[in-house]
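so my prof wants the structure for this chain in the tokens format not the other one, which i didnt know existed until like an hour ago. anyway here's the sequence
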Amino acid sequence: MGRSCENKCTALFLIFLVQFISCGRYDFSNRFITSPIKPNPGEKIVILYNPVGTKLDSKENIMAITRLYGKKDFQQISFFSRPNNIIDTEEYLMEKVKGGYKVEINLPDTVAGFIVTFKNKEYTDDSDGLGYWVPMYNSEGVQIQGANAGRAACLVVSGWGSDLDMAKFSDTLLTFYDKEFNLYPEKKKDFLFSYLYALKKSKGFDSYKEIENSLLEFAKSEDLLEPQLFFLSSWYRSIKNKEQSELFKKRALENFPNGEWSQRERLSSFYKLNELGERLEFLNKYMNEFPNGPGLEYIRGVILGQYIQYSQFEEAVIFFKKLDPGSFSSYPVFNSIKNNVKSNSGNIALLNQILDSIIKACRLELKMPSDKKPVASVTQTWMRKKAIALASALEASAFVSLNMDSMNIAREQLEEAYNLVEGEDKQISTSYGNILFKTRNISQARKVLEKSIASGFQNPEIEKLLKSIYIEENNSELGYENYFSGIRAVSMDKLTKKIKEKMILESSVGFTLLDTKGNEVSLSDFRGKAVVLDFWATWCGPCKASFPAMEKAIAKFSDAKFLFINSRERGDEKLQKVISYMSENDYSFHVLMDQEDTVYESFKVAFLPTKIILDGNGMVRYKSIGFYGEQELLDELEILLPMIKI
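here's what i got, hopefully its the right format
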């Protein structure tokens, strides 16, 4: 017994000693370092981080997000997708040790380098915007080929833990490429797509000649395949050489009549069809011609949704049973159910055959994914998308259950959906709060809605429902405004902090464009006012979805000037397209026609919609990309515009 106890104590002491030595041997004198300092591909390395002096100082649960990249751009499965050099992106919970934090990762043999971002739930340390960089070295301690260019290429693809500001860093990225190509001129062809993208963002129109020379050299290659022809066509179009763009497109369609480009050209005609019969006929012909053609999942989903729209539920089930699992898009089906199904729509119970099957498939996908994690996403983001897919299916099923008066089933489905999205979906929170209210779970309904608003997920339905609950609980609406303002203050404080972190101070580029009435309008005309530049196009769904909110913003913030810059418009008759769209929707926006995308390029815009906000001195103070909802847009402007007022 004594010997056993002695051995156990000795073992525990050795474990403690090993841990003490291992914790003490790390050097945290620098904010960031790796061990070894000059890692080789294929090694196991330790990432060390000392957050003192950063936003993460004294914070717990710090994560390291790593993006590993390769020695060249990789062509994606579809050549319509932008090539990139990403090998993997992942996040790791760091271990807190004496002096800082550490995490070990294994590097693949193919890696040329990686970048790291550190974050917790509230704050991010991205090393002032470009991440912490770790190039790879060979056995002689020399940096390997592709390390510099690969660094620039991997940053432009989102998902690495921060948002790259291309307007701010495009010149810097260009220096990474220049350093690479000066050392290894042959690497230019390996990074040509990503290099040209950075070059165009950095130099704008001044880059066109160099890009054209690169394209001329690239076109000399013998036996250009469809991806290379698409590359040439798209880049010639990007530098406004439509003639050459069309020539390479024609060559691709002629040389590859059954290729992916031809398939997409054929697919485009589907979007012009409205009648169910026409769409079914198109599907059959398209499948016969291209059995694995792009867009088939979407087409099948739209057709299934249209059967539901017309209350042809038996036909919908028959059509559905002919489809393989996962061979159709679910979202057109869910949208059709929520927009069209009513309690008197017919035998809506038939829809459960479709929805039960989708839910079963989503559960299986969440438990045992059938696909590989995208290299640009961390596992948590990838799995969250699968959880959202299941939550959306449950919400649609709950909608049917409600219309069948199956209240308890609907509540259970919505509760599961709500938990899956962790209360971070406005529509699901609304639906769940609503059914809790109807089933007299008043207190729980209130907590759900309060959490949604405090988290920044808000819409008019949530506000209306919360007010009803308040009145019922208090027998009066007296004091409601103060109560509601108190809840909103939490989300507004968080948003204020976020906006302050994203604010910038950059010189803007002056411009003069014609508006839709033919009048010249210059940015300098509005000196002394805050100006909101909203870059949009008639083909951009999120752009158009934001316009009702923008109408409210114009009315609410009358001291600011709102200019809607129509850019990246497709096809001919651009002006007429814009005028027709504005007229059909009764919008009175001040629209400027950026016919040649000159302003789009000069402000280095990368996505639509993008809003660029300038102060009264003409300085760029903020950039907002995308559209996330009416209230979010109005809240953002409500906080931002007073901050930049001169």
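also thought this was worth mentioning. The first strand starts at residue 32 and ends at 35.
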